[in-house]
């Protein structure tokens, strides 16, 4: 068994769920059984514009549930920012916020691994993006293979040479003080990449926790996959337009190769 640093950091776990009654209970139960002192973390579920019983199911499973209804500001990015604001106002102050998707499962050592990285001085950390259902279909299988390759040959490789990687939407941990200092305000189609690039323009890099594993459910059908990939591609193009000029200017101004590398990150030449 890996020897971890003494549990020190407190975590607010945030799960944004839109009509996820079918999958939210296993995740909340799973999160309540992590190998980390239970008094050092709390589980919050945002039932976002739900028309099913997601809120009641999550509450019965042991989560603290906040219900959000807003038909103008729709999407995970808005729901996350809304929940962050409520966490800041709480009497209890958390060292970091961990974010998961409702259809995930989480390795028991996830928070212990993230505590190690926080204790090592890291502030914005992405966990290992594994697959929950790689054998469900050929689509899910190819998604899993793609993620495994990117995890090892991109995230881990960049982390090992000191470059910034990027947040992946789930299995990510951000120091609360970073969120408060720079603000969230990420409501695009790929809010995770947007926040990573926003921080990079300020010289704050995203790091990688190779042994903090989250199991993400991959799309099973082709058209489900198509819609997801299309949304991601649109989000990346939006981020490219907004951040490539900023990254270029800040990278040259500070002479920082890590910031300039963000241009390679968002243009994704290995996919093109």
Give a written overview of the molecule.
- It is a single chain.
- The chain has 272 residues and is an alpha/beta fold.
- The protein is built from nine helices and eight strands.
- The chain has helices spanning 24-31, 54-61, 76-88, 110-119, 138-160, 176-182, 191-200, 222-254, 257-267; strands at 11-17, 41-48, 64-68, 96-101, 105-106, 124-131, 172-175, 207-216.
- It has an eight-stranded mixed beta sheet, sandwiched between helices.
- Helix 1 packs parallel to helix 2 and helix 8 (222-254) runs antiparallel to helix 9.
- The chain is globular and about 50 Å long.
- The mean pLDDT is 89.
In brief, what are we looking at here?
The chain contains 9 helices and 8 strands. It has an 8-stranded mixed sheet, with helices on both faces.
Q: How many H/I helices?
A: 9
Fraction of helical residues:
40-55%
Structural class: alpha/beta
Distance between the termini: 41 Å
Radius of gyration in whole Å, from Cα?
A: 18 Å
Share of residues in strands? 15-25%
Which regions have little confidence, pLDDT < 50, spanning 5+ residues? none
Q: Could you tell me the mean pLDDT?
A: 89
Let me know the largest β-sheet: 8 strands, mixed
Q: What's the total count of β strands?
A: 8
């Amino acid at each position: 068994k890996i020897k971890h640093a003494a549990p020190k950091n407190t975590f607010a776990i945030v799960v944004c769920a839109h009509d996820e009654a079918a999958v939210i209970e296993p995740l909340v139960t799973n999160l309540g059984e992590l190998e980390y002192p239970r008094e050092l973390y709390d589980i919050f579920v945002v039932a976002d514009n739900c028309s099913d019983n997601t809120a009641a199911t999550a509450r019965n499973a042991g989560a603290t549930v906040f219900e959000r209804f807003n038909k103008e500001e729709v999407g995970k990015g808005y729901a996350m920012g809304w929940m962050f604001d409520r966490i800041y106002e709480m009497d209890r102050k958390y060292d970091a916020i961990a974010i998961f998707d409702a259809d995930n499962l989480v390795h028991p050592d996830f928070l212990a691994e993230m505590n190690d990285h926080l204790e090592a001085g890291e502030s914005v950390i992405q966990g290992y993006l594994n697959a929950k259902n790689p054998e469900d279909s050929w689509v899910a299988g190819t998604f899993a293979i793609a993620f495994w390759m990117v995890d090892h040959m991109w995230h881990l490789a960049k982390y090992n040479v000191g470059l910034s990687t990027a947040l992946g939407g789930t299995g990510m941990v951000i120091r609360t003080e970073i969120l408060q200092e720079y603000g969230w305000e990420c409501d695009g189609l790929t809010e995770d990449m947007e926040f990573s690039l926003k921080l990079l323009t300020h010289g704050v890099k995203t790091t990688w926790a190779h042994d903090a594993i989250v199991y993400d459910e991959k799309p099973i059908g082709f058209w489900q996959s198509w819609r997801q990939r299309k949304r991601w591609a649109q989000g990346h193009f939006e981020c490219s337009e907004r951040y490539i000029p900023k990254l270029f200017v800040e990278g040259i101004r500070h002479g920082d190769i890590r910031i300039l590398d963000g241009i390679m990150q968002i243009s994704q030449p290995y996919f093109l």
